[in-house]
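pls design
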């Protein structure tokens, strides 16, 4: 593994049939030098079984710069989606992925790349997601995989899978976020002119009969803007519904149809994101961070960080603060 001073090593696994879009996403996130904007350096390598150019759809080609042996040095392995999800991956690729997982190297797949991981047996008994159009195909072809379609991306036993196309961007930015912090991920997202993170599930994108024109869309957007501008205040579904001029039941239904998540889950996500920024950018005491972001207490904030980020606010600050402050000292019970 790389030391704290070395670039994070990212291995892009390539072989005939991988999607040019996914290759571009991986390259845009980890292959662009943004050190002048405070983003740490990344060492992205395009790996393949053979060091010969690989034809991609649209008249493009990818030239590997490392063989699959480089996966043994990688801190993260990313597998692009496929032009044809039924196309079998080369045996050397599948074996290299199995060895990498045995070494506990994190592996992520974009869109139909989940089929490659399934072919390698890495998704057996694990939860996984892919593009909603491919969900039934993955479930039928690999019944041992716990296929779901209620997420933009999923994590199970050091393996990440993501839904279609744009969800691959979501996953890549999330992997940057959990490794280098929310501010770094936001900087990368801004340079890509995309959202640092999206809330909800891909259920909001699945084809349904077209309803009547949703005249409530602007109202719901205004309510979300209001909640973000007053994040420190307590909010309830009933209160937000009243602000929208809707009944709580109607508001909750329209909100989930629009965002793919419930109002309260959306609020928690926004509060965690706001707390991450304050922990990275300021030296505010933890109780004040909790107050400003609407958690009310440090205990509540700590519980949500543990649930959603698998860390504590204090540890998050130690890992990602731009200019770490001295450790806080508890003076309630001084030593004699």
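designed seq:
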């Amino acid at each position: 593994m790389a030391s704290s001073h070395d670039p994070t090593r990212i291995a892009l696994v390539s072989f005939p049939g991988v999607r040019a879009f996914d290759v571009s996403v991986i390259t845009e996130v980890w292959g662009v030098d943004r050190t002048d904007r405070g983003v740490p350096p990344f060492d992205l390598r395009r790996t393949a079984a053979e060091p010969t150019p690989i034809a991609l759809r649209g008249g493009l080609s990818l030239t590997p710069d490392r063989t699959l042996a480089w996966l043994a040095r990688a801190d993260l392995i990313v597998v692009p989606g496929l032009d044809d999800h039924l196309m079998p991956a080369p045996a050397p690729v599948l074996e290299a992925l199995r060895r990498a997982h045995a070494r506990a190297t994190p592996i992520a797949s974009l869109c139909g790349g989940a089929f490659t991981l399934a072919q390698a047996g890495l998704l057996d008994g694990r939860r996984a997601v892919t593009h909603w159009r491919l969900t039934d195909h993955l479930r039928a072809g690999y019944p041992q995989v716990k296929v779901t379609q209620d997420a933009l991306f999923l994590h199970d036993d050091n393996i990440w899978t993501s839904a279609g196309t744009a969800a691959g961007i979501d996953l890549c930015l999330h992997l940057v976020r959990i490794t280098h912090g929310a501010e770094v991920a936001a900087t990368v997202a801004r340079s890509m002119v995309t959202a640092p993170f999206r809330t909800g599930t891909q259920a909001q994108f699945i084809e349904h009969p077209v309803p009547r024109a949703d005249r409530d869309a602007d109202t719901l957007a205004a309510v979300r803007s209001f909640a973000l501008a007053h994040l420190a205040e307590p909010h309830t579904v009933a209160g937000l519904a009243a602000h929208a001029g809707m009944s709580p039941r109607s508001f909750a239904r329209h909100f989930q149809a629009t965002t793919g998540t419930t109002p309260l889950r959306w609020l928690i996500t926004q509060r965690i994101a706001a707390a991450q920024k304050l922990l990275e950018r300021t030296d505010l005491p933890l109780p004040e961070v909790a107050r400003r972001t609407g958690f009310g207490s440090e205990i509540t904030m700590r519980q949500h960080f543990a649930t959603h980020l698998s860390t504590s606010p204090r540890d998050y600050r130690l890992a990602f603060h731009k200019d770490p402050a001295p450790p806080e000292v508890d003076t309630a019970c001084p030593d004699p």
